[in-house]
Each structure stands twice: as structure tokens, then as C-alpha cells.
From TrEMBL:
Keyword Kinase: no
Pfam families xref list: TetR_C_43 (PF21597), TetR_N (PF00440)
InterPro entries with a match to the protein in the record: Homeodomain-like_sf, HTH-type_TetR-like_transc_reg, HTH_TetR, Tet_transcr_reg_TetR-rel_C_sf, TetR_SbtR-like_C
Name by which UniProt lists this protein: AcrR family transcriptional regulator
DNA-binding interval(s): 41-60
Keywords: DNA-binding, Transcription, Transcription regulation
PROSITE patterns membership: HTH_TETR_2
Keyword Ion transport applies: no
Length: 217
């Protein structure tokens, strides 16, 4: 028979309270990052969560640790999308599906783009997952080019430019943002087809490293 609340061990009560505070902080941070960006003050997140700043820092000693915890699941889902594209026997279809799914994820969670583009050298697991996603996407691009259907001058880092453009479209409300994103992605996928390729303006090629920024603290 479960123990009556009055009989609960103090340590158990403290653990339950700590878990509850942690969940509230993560929910508040997710909402704040989505509406105000990743540079929202930690004190504002604590107020939104209904906890003290000291409690927030006990759970998450740095902004970096909070950001990587909030967006860890999204990054893992992004890596899974790339894995699915690699498993598709049709490289062009896999490439298109990866673009469509990642952009849809971005609309659903608008803070993810900034989190993806930041560098978190101390968050080893987060960085390892991102590196795997980047390597996988580069291979998706290579395979799609090998079929002759993806334009030869497309670079893996062009995904970052696409995400930045899609982020602007995704600022609209609900289904309007989703519909706008789908339309933008459809236009861009047409532009990425080799048969529609026209010379791009001369510019040094970007790398993902050029677009990563150090996390704010």
C-alpha cells in the first residue's frame, strides 16, 4: 500500500520537489526562448517558472546547460530525420524529405534555429549529436548530387541559409506560418533541382562554422 503523504520520507519529498521545479524551469525556458530569443535573462525565466534565481542555477548552472537541455530532444529528432534520408533508396526524395521535415520542426519550435546555429563546446553530447547530423546531411547532399537531380553548386551549409529564411516566415501565427513555410520550401526545392540551376552570384562558399555563434552566458 502506498505511503500516506504524511509518512513520505523527507528525501523523497525533496526529490519530487526538485523534479517538479526542473520541469517548470524547462517549460518556462522553452516558452521564453520561443517568444523572446535565447538571450532572454535567466531571471525572467525563473520568474516565469515561479522559482527563485538560485533554484534555477542549482538545476542549470549556466545558460548553455539550460539551452542544450531544452533543445536536446529537437536536435536528436533532427539527427533522426537525416538518418531517415540516408536510409531512403531514392537520394533526391530523401534530400527533399529531410528539408521539408526540418523546416516543419522549425516552425513548431522557433527557438530551435538559434540553438542549432550556436556552438556549445562544453555540451559534449549535444555537440556530438549535431556533428553526426551535419555529417549525415553532407552525405545526403553528396548522394543527391550523384543522381544528377540536385544542382552541383548546392553546399551543405546552404541548409543554414534556408533555415534562416524559413525562420522569418515562421514568425506568423499558427497555421499561417506552417502554410507559408511549406510554400517557401516548395519554391526552394524547385530552385535546388539541377535542371533549374542558373549561375549563383559569386561569393566565397559558406561553412556551417561561419554561421555558428558562441552561446550567450
Amino acid at each position: 500500500m502506498p505511503a500516506h503523504p504524511s509518512q513520505m520520507e523527507p528525501a523523497e519529498a525533496m526529490r519530487a520537489d526538485a523534479r517538479h521545479n526542473r520541469a517548470r524551469i524547462l517549460d518556462a525556458a522553452r516558452e521564453a526562448f520561443a517568444t523572446r530569443g535565447l538571450d532572454v535573462p535567466m531571471a525572467a525565466i525563473a520568474r516565469r517558472a515561479g522559482v527563485g534565481v538560485a533554484t534555477l542555477y542549482r538545476r542549470f548552472p549556466s545558460r548553455e546547460s539550460l539551452i542544450t537541455e531544452v533543445f536536446g530532444d529537437e536536435l536528436a529528432a533532427c539527427a533522426s530525420v537525416v538518418d531517415e534520408a540516408l536510409a531512403d533508396p531514392d537520394p533526391w526524395r530523401g534530400f527533399c524529405a529531410a528539408i521539408e521535415k526540418v523546416c516543419a520542426m522549425q516552425v513548431a519550435d522557433r527557438g530551435f534555429t538559434d540553438a542549432f546555429l550556436m556552438a556549445f563546446p562544453e555540451a559534449v553530447d549535444y555537440e556530438r549529436t549535431r556533428a553526426r547530423a551535419e555529417r549525415g546531411f553532407a552525405e545526403v547532399v553528396r548522394r543527391a548530387k550523384a543522381t544528377g537531380r540536385l544542382r552541383a553548386d548546392f553546399e551543405p551549409a546552404d541548409l543554414t541559409l534556408l533555415l534562416k529564411a524559413n525562420c522569418a516566415v515562421a514568425t506568423g501565427p499558427g497555421e499561417i506560418a506552417a502554410a507559408g513555410s511549406r510554400r517557401l520550401v516548395a519554391y526552394l526545392l524547385q530552385a535546388f533541382r539541377a535542371e533549374h540551376a542558373a549561375p549563383l552570384p559569386p561569393a566565397p562558399p559558406l561553412t556551417l562554422g561561419h554561421l555558428h555563434a558562441p552561446a550567450a552566458r
